[in-house]
Amino acid sequence: MASQEPSVHIGNASHATFAIGSHAHAESHHHGAPAERDAAAEELLNAVRELRADLTRVRESEQTARLEAALAETEEEIARTGTAGEGRLQRLRELLDDAQAVLALFASAGTVAGLLGM
After folding, report:
1. pLDDT, tens digit, 9 for 90 and up, residues 49-106
2. Rounded percentage of the chain residues whose pLDDT exceeds 70
3. In angstroms, rounded to a whole number, what is the distance separating the alpha carbons of residues 71 and 109?
4. With the C-alpha atoms ordered 87, 89, 95, 98, is the resulting torsion angle positive or negative?
């Protein structure tokens, strides 16, 4: 004997909240959209991404590894909050200054340094 139960089809359920059944309970914990970035933050984010890409072209050293980590953190913070805090920017300035010999090869380093007021 075939069941007469209705069939259920769920398509794309991203950002959706639903519950099925008589005692089902659904909770939604959606996070808001990333913060809006102003033009300066957008420009810095693009420059940081370009410098990170350029860093993959050099042999890794302790200096470049620290710089890469700081750039990744800066990129994440700008993407998440729409800006980078002054403490993070100061740390990035220091790391750029420390790695000047390696970074002199890349125009992207000059762009980031210029956007940081160096």
Report:
1. 999 998 998 888 898 899 999 999 999 999 999 999 999 999 999 998 888 877 777 7
2. 71
3. 11
4. negative
**At a CB cut-off of 8 Å and minimum separation 6, what does 48 contact?**
71, 74, 75, 78, 112
Q: Could you tell me the two tokens for 110?
A: 């000059």
- Nearest CA to 113 out of 104, 15, 61 is that of 104
Closest listed residue to residue 112, CA positions, set 57, 59, 38, 53: 53
Whole-model pTM: value is 0.64
Asked whether the beta carbons of 83 and 34 are under 8 A apart, the reply is: no
Q: Is the pLDDT of residue 13 over 90?
A: no
